Amino acid sequence: MKYIVSKHCGFCSGVKRAVEYAYKNAGENTVTYGELIHNKIVVDKLAEKGVTAVNDISQCIGKKVIVRSHGAGKDFFDKASALGIEVIDATCPFVKKIHDIVYRHYIDGYHIAIIGKAGHPEVEGTNGWCENTASIVDDEKAAEALVHFERVCFVTQTTYLLEKYLRILKKIRKLPFKTVEIFNTICYTTISRQNDAENISRKCTKVLVIGSGNSSNTRKLMETAAGLSDVYLVESLDDLYKIKFSTNDVIGITAGASTPDELIMEVKEYMSQELGAVVSEDFAKAVEESFVSYKVGKRIKGTVISADEKGIKVSIGGKSDGFIRKEDVNLDGSYDPAQYTQGMELDTKIVSTNDPDTGCVLLSKKAVDEIKEADKIVETIRNGESFEITIDKPVKGGLLARLGTYSVFIPASQIKERFVSDLKQFAGKKLEVVALEIDDAKHKIVASRRKLVEAEKAAKEEVFWAHVVPNVVVSGVVKRITPFGAFVSVDGFDCLAHIVDLSWNHIKTVDEVLTVGQTYDFLVLSADKEKKRVSLGYKQLQPHPFVACMEKHPVGSTLKGKVVSIVPFGVFVEVEPHIEGLVHVSEVAHSFVKDINEVVKVGDEVEVKVLNYDEANKKINLSMKACLPEEPKPAKAEGDEANKKTKKVKSKKPETEEEVEWSEDTSNNPFADLLKDLNIKE
Questions:
Q1: Contacts 24+ apart (CB under 8 A), 16-23
Q2: Which listed residue (35, 122, 124, 235) is catalytic?
Q3: Confidence category of residue 279, pLDDT binned at 50, 70, 90
Q4: Quick one: 198 and 281 in the same domain?
Q5: In a 3-state reduction of DSSP, which class is residue 88?
Q6: CA 425 to CA 87: how far, in whole Å?
Q7: N or C: which end of the chain has fewer CB within 10 A?
Q8: 502 and 527 part of one domain
């Protein structure tokens, strides 16, 4: 008995990432929106760690929510944001791409058609990006029913059966659509798995498909192998025990994208240890050779078979021919079929191993020409000229890219001014760099992004310090808030707006005036280039509340205010928010006031009259008595004047005597009291 395991089986990258997210956040009040993957073993293990599945967004409030690799509709993300739900988006990048296509075309007025299975979570999530208006197409008849739409956009479920998709596609191309756009969005890993399953099935007597019966990609593998071999679904070892094997069997093993590695290992161990099955190297090699051996990105030579207005058909020495679309022939976009005669050899690069339109390996001559042109660029960058590259992948200690036939290495220390620990973020991104070292013998280039960053920063700083000077108004974005002020980004530079320079009124916290992320105008108070410090003021650009108060309450006007404090010399009254005026004790009442607290209390509302403003010192003088009615003068008793007697007093001075007159009524008379103290007698 012999067996072989498919090259492509077990977790795909999207499922693997989702599972890693779940295990990483397990035990932190985490749920998944829908069952994370279609595999009971994994789902049960996650449940043991506290990660359960929910199907209603109301069950997500207050929790971390992992969106599974199948994705979710736009409405879910909108509601989650509105409810303040923390979302960990584990949507497969291939599915994300479909969502973008659907949303963009739906906005542009296209009717969306999804080639896939109705009810599948991925299909439902995709439908949520066009407000659930999409038509679900699972056969040629369903596609035919859409011809009445003016504009139709077709996308495909990532795990859809390729053979079935090609049949539907053939039908679509024959239908009289006015405007139609078709996107083959089947995941390449799905296609690879299906191709492997087909080739294995042709060589084996039995095929074991490991996975869950509710997994779409697992069922597609079974459908692919059906009719070519005896096919068995293995959800657990219990299913394996039920299968009758013979010593002459050649067993093929494949697995769905949601099948954990541990189950695949258990099946392999059972085949080896319990059944004594072995892997035949000859058999494995034969199967490997039967697979499409072409790899995307590989350079390959092809011989022209024919050329027409659509492109060039070439022989590439395998069971499949190659095809070069007219737009992939030349760098300048030109194409003349007559120039490509039968037997001509072309240097090409593999774009796709299975083009659904032609059934050929899709090639690009232009891609190879681009490589050749890139080699020419190397000659132009030896003197420090910058050049642009696309990062292929992060490697130990840096980033790796290509420039023609040269490999380009950017050390981690040469990416930014500061060391970068997370190199994965640069994968697939374009970077402008400058060559530090060129090794022509090994076709290697060591490059730096940091040098360009530092040069750009220096140039920006010169411009910044040239126009950011005191008394200049600048615009800045509030980046963060501290108890003592706000850090504001002005042209990418951090400046400080101190809390005392934010408001004319007293404020306790910065966020009473400024909001993080918002843009405001500020006045430059000081700028120190050497210390790289800039102080900003916000209140200086706002009208002073004292001036506004003067305009609102001119001298002579009356208003009502609130007593905020009482001092021995008077009363402070708030006439506007945070604006206080003084009522001097002499202006409290018409009569003498011995204790102000007997007249008013803190918190009382009083009517006052504006006497005057001291604009320079920001002071207001008020009067309460001016708003009170005049007190009546007490009536004089008859005979008071007649009864007054006058006395003469001699001065103590020996030289002269001076007569002084005063009233006998000396009550409340300070001068009389003084004379008594001097012992002046009559």
A1: 17/69, 17/90, 17/92, 18/66, 18/68, 18/69, 18/90, 18/92, 21/66, 21/88, 21/90, 22/46, 22/51, 22/66, 22/90, 23/49
A2: 122
A3: low
A4: yes
A5: strand
A6: 20
A7: C
A8: yes
Asked if residue 482 is part of any domain, the answer here is yes
pLDDT digits (tens, 9 = 90+) for 218-277: 888 888 888 777 888 988 888 888 888 888 888 888 888 888 878 888 888 888 777 776
Catalytic residue list contains 659: no
CA distance 449 to 418: 12
CB 112 within 8 A of CB 135: yes
Two structure tokens written together for 24: 């990483």
DSSP 237-253: HHHHHTS---TT-EEEE
Task: Look at residue 116 in the predicted model and tell me its pLDDT.
Answer: 93
Q: What is the side-by-side order of every strand in the sheet holding 52-54?
A: 52-54, 30-33, 64-67, 86-89
Is residue 522 domain-shared with residue 554, that is, in the same domain? no
Cα 115 to Cα 328: distance, rounded to the nearest angstrom: 28
CATH of the domain at 446: 2.40.50.140
**Residue range 552-593, pLDDT digits in tens:** 899 999 999 999 999 999 999 999 887 899 999 999 898 888
Q: How much is the pLDDT for 244?
A: 87
Whether 498 shows a pLDDT value over 70: the answer reads: yes
88 domain residue, yes or no: no
For residue 671, is it within any domain?
Answer: yes
Tokens of 345: 């050899």
Q: Give per-residue pLDDT as tens, 383-395.
A: 778 888 999 999 9
| Mean pLDDT for all residues in the chain | 83
The three state secondary structure string of 97-133 is HHHHHHHHHHHCCCEEEEECCCCCHHHHHHHHHHCCC
Q: Which residue has the higher pLDDT, 155 or 7?
A: 155
